[in-house]
From TrEMBL:
<protein>
    <submittedName>
        <fullName>3-oxoacyl-[acyl-carrier protein] reductase</fullName>
    </submittedName>
</protein>
<dbReference type="GO" id="GO:0016491">
    <property type="term" value="F:oxidoreductase activity"/>
</dbReference>
<dbReference type="InterPro" id="IPR002347">
    <property type="entry name" value="SDR_fam"/>
</dbReference>
<dbReference type="InterPro" id="IPR050259">
    <property type="entry name" value="SDR"/>
</dbReference>
<dbReference type="Pfam" id="PF13561">
    <property type="entry name" value="adh_short_C2"/>
</dbReference>
<dbReference type="GO" id="GO:0032787">
    <property type="term" value="P:monocarboxylic acid metabolic process"/>
</dbReference>
<keyword id="KW-0560">Oxidoreductase</keyword>
<feature type="domain" description="Ketoreductase">
    <location>
        <begin position="7"/>
        <end position="185"/>
    </location>
</feature>
<comment type="similarity">
    <text>Belongs to the short-chain dehydrogenases/reductases (SDR) family.</text>
</comment>
<dbReference type="InterPro" id="IPR020904">
    <property type="entry name" value="Sc_DH/Rdtase_CS"/>
</dbReference>
<keyword id="KW-0521">NADP</keyword>
<dbReference type="InterPro" id="IPR057326">
    <property type="entry name" value="KR_dom"/>
</dbReference>
<dbReference type="InterPro" id="IPR036291">
    <property type="entry name" value="NAD(P)-bd_dom_sf"/>
</dbReference>
Amino acid sequence: MSQSVRRVAVVTGAARGIGAAIARKLAADGLAVAVVDLDEKAGAETVDAIVSAGGSAIAIGADVADKDQVRAAVERTVAELGAPTVLVNNAGVLRDNLLFKMSEDDWDTVMAVHLRGAFLFSKAVQEHMVAAKFGRIVSLSSTSALGNRGQANYAAAKAGLQGFTKTLAIELGKFGITANAVAPGFIVTDMTRATAARVGVDFDDFEKAAVSQIPVARAGRPEDVANTVSFLVGEGAGFVSGQVVYVAGGPRD
Ligand code: NAP
């Protein structure tokens, strides 16, 4: 991305998986990145990779569902990197189970991380975006938003993020802020490995079964998602807002 000012991005859940790939890509694009994850030490690997490639990043420990920790994370970002004008709501957890076995805790945890987390971070960061008259908010949805067995909580949260995104697009557009959702399909990360383990299927078989349903005939990689986020947060994407971009190797409704 060519840009006159070095923009500052906050990427949540960026210690590993898709979040780490997004943080690395945005840093390679020239943004300074706050790598937010539950454990500050866990973010060190992502930060080291960015810094050794010549980029700028800091690790910040924060639970996205905790209002005070979110506020403190944004304050640290402002103090150490500058005011953030890019936010990627990526932190996520799974608590899969069939409805009749799903506990209230499974439900509440998934809502807290995905929905409350995106709400708290977007609210905390938007004032900096409004002040800058520029902002890019990207939230990680999922093909599971369309419904997925064993994921009533996760599907509801990921569908909720799509409504949240469209509403932010409507409310914040006049301040130069766009909001979009990226909805990945099957991406190889610890999360998909954990799902295979939970259902008792060898990961290679799990991946083969998933790939057999994907038109481009391969599994997704974190970089596939990172490249899409890179476009959406770029200066050139200012007329793309309130969209859900499926990154799933084929069409979804
Ligand atoms: P992942 O490998 O499990 O990474 C998720 C990261 O989020 C972890 O570093 C995790 O930290 C962090 N996190 C969890 N709860 C948090 C909290 N309360 N506060 C701060 N950070 C927290 O998952 P992923 O596969 O990269 O997924 C990233 C996003 O993409 C998620 O929103 C996920 O739902 C979405 N997605 C993934 C896929 C896929 O196929 N992988 C498909 C569609 C959508 P800990 O390690 O400390 O738990």
